[in-house]
């Protein structure tokens, strides 16, 4: 193999100028990432090319889990099965009750001429990577465009809302957690129905503007209000821990804890977005506004 | 030119590239941060290795490319690792001739400085991008990386040697 020895009359750019130019390129990429579709397209091709590598990287984890699952003792399994069948019975009962209520609700909504919008699910996905970065609030899912996922779909885990899909590649997808500082979620208090907005604030979530004249207590559960096209109504998001009245502002100061497991959850359900309602004509809008 | 340099130049390109792939594979394994925060970035280590032993082939440009791949693979903002790897490789390349003369112990110090540089750039980018500072534990990883350096060098030598002997 012939390579030139290191000398001072080397062809090509000097590495310092190369560093400067490529640094500018990478800063530009950081700016354009998630804002410019061509960058995303290239990124998604690269992600598809890297998928085999990610798949192999996940095999040790799967293998470890498989082994640890198989060596679980018999008694554990029996206890688990007992607990599960109990829970199953309880859930079945609840389901039956919910069915009755759902039916009533459908009838009521039909009476009002509103559409029934149940929660649909476009698929289950496994979280295959949480990345090295402790602060990154993005996860990588093992399914993508092929399974019908779209940018903007909401994702839930077993306890509640976990985030939103922000980038879809053919075989994988990127999930941004609700703690991301760019996330805003329309919520309502499950007990009272008061609506507000929930803001991601980096490591946690924040209820910044909850009016102090409305009722809010510790242990209240916040659920999505369904006032947008993204999150279906009624998904639990967070639980209120403490509520303070602060003199001088018309808002409560609230400490919250998110309900979903974030780093601990392994599977997520992806919910497709609602179709946006047809544009209301201004006439019907004003008619609605006049209605008491 | 020393014999060692010549030896590394005779290593075919595909070996170098598969080394990078293996390192990326290790980096993509979804270890949780809470228990594995001390794991160094293997891609960065292998990049440093080749930047030291084969500066004609692996330089700032290669660092940029690998960085972009790692960004996509770990869902980091595109360009973050590219920038930090470039700075790291540039840092080491400016002193490449001198570092090669040192013993493994002193080399490990240089590697530690380079990895720390990498980590600082990563944290700064994160600070700009997200307005948050990384947890301090991430600065443990460069130490471990530097400790692994003599081992990595030995392993690479063994692998490359065995290849050459078989021919």
Number of domains of chain B: 1
Q: Give the overall shape of chain A.
A: globular
Oligomer: heterodimer
Instruction: Quote the distance from N terminus to C terminus of chain B.
Output: 23 Å
SS class of chain A: alpha+beta
Number of alpha- plus pi-helical segments of chain B: 9
Order of helices and strands of chain B: HHHHHHHHH
Envelope shape of chain B: globular
The span between the termini of chain A is: 84 Å
If you compute it from the alpha carbons, what radius of gyration of chain B comes out, rounded to the nearest whole angstrom? Answer: 16 Å
Along the chain, the helix and strand elements of chain A come as: HHHEEEEEEEEEEEEH
CATH architecture of the domain at 123-271 in chain A: Beta Barrel
> Which sequence of strands runs across the widest sheet of chain A?
1-2-5-4-3-12
Q: Would you state the CATH class of the domain at 123-271 in chain A?
A: Mainly Beta
**Could you name the CATH homologous superfamily of the domain at 123-271 in chain A?**
Rod shape-determining protein MreC, domain 1
Bin the helical content of chain B: over 70%
Strand content of chain A: 15-25%
The average pLDDT score of chain A comes to 80
Strand content range of chain B: under 5%
Largest sheet of chain B: none
Keywords (chain B): Cell membrane, Cell shape, Membrane, Transmembrane, Transmembrane helix
GO biological process, one term (chain B): regulation of cell shape
Organism (chain B): Neisseria zalophi
Pfam family, one (chain B): MreD
């Amino acid at each position: 193999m012939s390579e030139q020895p290191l000398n001072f009359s080397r062809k090509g750019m000097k590495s310092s100028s190369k560093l400067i130019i490529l640094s500018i390129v990478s800063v530009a990429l950081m700016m354009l990432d998630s804002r410019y579709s061509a960058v995303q397209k290239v990124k998604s091709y690269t992600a598809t090319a890297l998928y085999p590598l990610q798949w192999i990287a996940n095999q040790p984890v799967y293998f470890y889990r498989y082994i640890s699952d198989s060596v679980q003792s018999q008694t554990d399994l029996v206890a688990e099965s007992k607990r599960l069948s109990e829970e199953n019975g309880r859930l079945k009962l609840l389901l039956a009750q919910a069915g009755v209520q759902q039916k009533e609700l459908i009838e009521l909504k039909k009476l009002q001429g509103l559409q029934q919008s149940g929660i649909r699910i476009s698929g289950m996905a496994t979280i295959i990577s949480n990345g090295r970065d402790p602060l990154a609030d993005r996860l990588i899912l093992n399914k993508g465009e092929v399974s019908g996922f779209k940018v903007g779909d909401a994702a839930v885990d077993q306890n509640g809302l976990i985030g939103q899909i922000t980038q879809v590649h053919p075989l994988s997808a990127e999930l941004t957690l609700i703690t991301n500082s760019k996330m805003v979620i329309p919520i309502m208090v499950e007990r009272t129905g008061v609506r507000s907005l929930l803001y991601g604030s980096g490591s946690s979530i924040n209820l910044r503007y909850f009016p102090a004249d409305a009722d809010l207590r510790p242990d209240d559960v916040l659920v999505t209000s369904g006032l947008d096209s993204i999150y279906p109504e009624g998904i639990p998001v967070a639980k209120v821990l403490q509520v303070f009245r602060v003199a001088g502002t018309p808002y409560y100061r609230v400490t919250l804890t998110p309900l979903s497991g974030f780093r601990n959850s392994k599977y997520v359900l992806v919910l497709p977005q609602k179709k946006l309602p047809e544009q209301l004509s201004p006439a019907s809008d004003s008619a609605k506004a006049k209605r008491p | 030119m020393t014999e060692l340099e010549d030896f590394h130049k005779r290593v075919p390109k595909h070996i170098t590239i598969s080394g990078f792939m293996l390192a990326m594979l290790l980096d993509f394994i979804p270890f949780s941060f809470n228990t594995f925060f001390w794991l160094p970035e293997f891609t960065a280590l292998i990049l440093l290795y080749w930047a030291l032993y084969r500066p004609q082939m692996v330089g700032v440009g290669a660092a940029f490319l690998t960085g972009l791949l790692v960004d996509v693979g770990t869902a980091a903002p595109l360009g973050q690792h590219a920038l930090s790897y470039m700075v790291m490789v540039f840092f080491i390349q400016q002193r490449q001739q001198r570092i090669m003369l040192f013993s493994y112990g002193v080399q490990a110090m240089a590697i530690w400085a380079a990895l720390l540089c990498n980590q600082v750039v990563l944290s700064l980018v994160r600070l700009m991008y997200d307005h948050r500072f990384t947890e301090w534990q991430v600065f443990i990883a460069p130490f471990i990386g530097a400790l692994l350096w003599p081992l990595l060098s030995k392993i690479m030598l063994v692998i490359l040697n065995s290849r050459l002997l078989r021919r």
